Structure formats: C-alpha cells, structure tokens
Amino acid sequence: MLDKPLNISRYLLLAVKEPLDKSQMRSWLQIARRTAPSGVIASVQTTDDQGTLRSVSMVHREGKKKHSYLIPLTRDLGAEEVHKIVEAFAEEEPDLDFDVETNSVEIAPEERNGISVNDEQHLAVCTAMAKARHNKWMRDRLNSGWRYGLKVDSEEMTHPMLRPWEQLPDNFRQIDMDSPQALLDLIAAQGYAIIAQDELDRLQRKARS
C-alpha cells in the first residue's frame, strides 16, 4: 500500500477519520476481494521511493478530515454488489465507523445479442429489477431492526443506504445490465420468448380477425 497520487477512474473507497492499522487494512482488502464479483478487483502500477515499479491493490490517501483507502476496480459496481461488501466489512469491524463510496463512471453502450443497453424497454426492465432488489434489501434490514443513519454502524444498526431508491446517491444507483440480459438469454435458450404486452395484444387481435 502506497501513499502516492494516482489517477484511478474506477474504485471502491473506504473513508475513516483515523488511519487504519495494518490488520484493518488487510481486512478491508481481503473482504473486498472475497465479496466482490470475480475479476472486479484490479491493481495499479506505481513506483516506490526508490524508483522501483510496483503493482499495488490499495492506495491510501490522507485528507484534512479523513483517510481514504482506495481499491482499483476493472468495472463499476452496482448498488447490491456494494451492499454485500459494506455488510461483510461491518461484520468484520463492528466497532469501526466508516463510509464506503464508489465512482460513478459512465460505461460506453455496447451491443448484446442484438439488444442495445440503450434500448428503452430493456433499460426499463433493468432499472425495475435494480429497484426491486434494493427495496427487498431495505425491507429485510428494516425488519431486522436497522434504520437510516449517516454511517454504517452495526452496534447502532444504522446504514446510509436505508432510503428509497430515488433518494440514493447516483453512484449507488447503478443499474446492472448483465444479470437481466443473462436471464433473457437463458429463457431464449429454453425455447421461450418475451414480448411486450402491447405487442401481445396486437398479435391476439390479429389472430381473432
């Protein structure tokens, strides 16, 4: 872990008021590696004080009021993916007050089996699924006694993301475009097709005429 200025465009950031000790730093990195999806955690190249090129998986930055521990990523994380990491670290370090942030880098659209991520209906489905997952996560936590708070605190049972989808910060309102598409691909592979309700109504009217 180095304290060097680096341009890291995609990251997972742990912010605390006091610097972490070595055990806590190791815990943060290990939990991120264990909990994040495979292949998401990356490393960056930098040079140490002796000019030796090194590959590091975490970067420490010290500000006026907080210490930040950034883990480089290969892609943006969705809200549910961040939830899992936050919960795992809160369980590991129950006495530590911390915030977790991630970037909000926009990914260029790409084509997937003829369906563009910009397709209005596909985007609507992905957004609805992301919102439903967040609402279920929020209900489960509230039913377990958790409540909204500015920081993740397992003792006080507070969490900053216990609020409606529309009120989440943009970087936590990431939409997973892959999982819904994987479901559509699976359905298609089984010989089924999904069509919009208005298209179904049109086909039924045509069949009756």
Map the helices and strands:
Layout: E1 11-16, H1 22-35, E2 44-47, E3 53-56, E4 59-62, E5 67-72, H2 79-92, E6 99-102, E7 111-112, E8 115-116, H3 120-143, E9 147-148, E10 158-159, H4 178-189, H5 197-208
Parallel strand pairs: 9-10
Antiparallel strand pairs: 1-5, 1-6, 2-3, 4-5, 7-8
Description:
With 209 residues, the chain is α+β, with helices and mostly antiparallel strands. The protein has one domain (11-208). The protein is 36% helix and 17% strand. It is built from five helices and ten strands. It has helices at 22-35, 79-92, 120-143, 178-189, 197-208; strands at 11-16, 44-47, 53-56, 59-62, 67-72, 99-102, 111-112, 115-116, 147-148, 158-159. The chain has a four-stranded antiparallel β-sheet with strand order 4-5-1-6, with helices on one face. A two-stranded antiparallel sheet has the order 2-3. It has a two-stranded antiparallel ribbon with strand order 7-8. Strand 2 (44-47) and strand 3 (53-56) form a beta hairpin. Helix 1 (22-35) packs antiparallel against helix 2. The model is unreliable at 1-5 and 105-118 (pLDDT under 50).
